[in-house]
């Protein structure tokens, strides 16, 4: 693991840097809200966000006023600098108002999946030591006996809770003046890292602003008109996720774009929203790309009415064949991939950094793009820790200004993922080619995901049963699935005689994955 790897000082280090034009990542001299909304006064009448469920919208002027009100309201209910506030809400227009209100008062935002199992939600609330919960009536029942104050949004607030309107109607001019350092933690998203147990990822204002500067190619933290992009961005990716907060929200607002909120995915609804709101950029995932290519519902719509020009695909590998099929059907829409990590504040590699005026050779299809300016990358042998040359498979390690400060109250897990030289070990196996394009080929993590035509990847499980065991595989599958969120549920389970291991006792994950994937493909084909 990362903390145990040693390297002979005489060995050559193979370290790779970005092929993008070089520039110094600016020294971060402001908080995340200050960076995102710097100079926003000049765009006060422009729409910042609109909720497609009912068309309600907020201009940048209204948005920033409500952020100040929320900061004041949070202070009035006892939130202080350093307090964690856990938001357990679906995508709604007010989500970002609450997030930036928390940060403005010096709090720490921790987003939680509202569709998660109640036990998972409660674990995160306890683990994060949250001092306040913000949720809605539909999710409130999952937080019984938490003994944490609750603010309710999107409906009537039951007795003993606070209505979110109390925050929005507070006097923003009375918000306390809080001294916030760029090195203070501002976000606490939860990630499984390279092992299965979710851990709180401590991200500072400096981390977040640095990663935004890397992603958007910004040489300065102050806003200027040349940074104006003003896209209409689809807000479908979950806002509780780092990509929803940083890659979607912060990038969209800093660029003075308009975010169009969608709460849940449904193909007909998606197409209608894309057309009705003139969406120009959509962050999506492979299963949705597949539906756009193959679902006959798509043909019910006049695709010429789409104003969509670009799609960024992330969170799972996008197959080369699927990418080609999409571009054949939608030749006027550019589709690219990105690779990100919660532990690196969001984006680490991308096909198309949002840099105006750069003449950049496009990354190859099938790759996750190239390293962002300001980051360094190397690939190491998981067994020896030696760095490897180009075109050689190894564990991807990254180093740069956006690396998390650590896991919340978990020094052992932090040491396990960030080595003594500051390299963040991702748990993903990949390589970099001679052109500087990065490819991910498999996972080193204690997790089996096998290829699937619709989802891109699905979770699978291997079970070694004792001789004459009365336990049935379906019983194991049903029990595990009853304890976790829907997207984590085991889709395929297989009984094996033994878990294959190397001479040194390490699990041969690739052998096991290939074995299970072969049986899964055979099963799915037999059903056709």
From TrEMBL:
Ranges for domain AMP-binding enzyme C-terminal: 450-506
What Pfam families has UniProt attached to this entry?
Answer: AMP-binding, AMP-binding_C
Q: Does the keyword Ligase apply?
A: yes
Where would I find the AMP-dependent synthetase/ligase domain in this sequence? 40-408
Q: Which PANTHER family match?
A: 4-COUMARATE--COA LIGASE-LIKE 1 (PTHR24096:SF389), LONG-CHAIN-FATTY-ACID--COA LIGASE (PTHR24096)
Report the sequence similarity comment from the record: Belongs to the ATP-dependent AMP-binding enzyme family.
This chain belongs to the protein called 4-coumarate--CoA ligase
Q: Which organism is it from?
A: Riccia fluitans
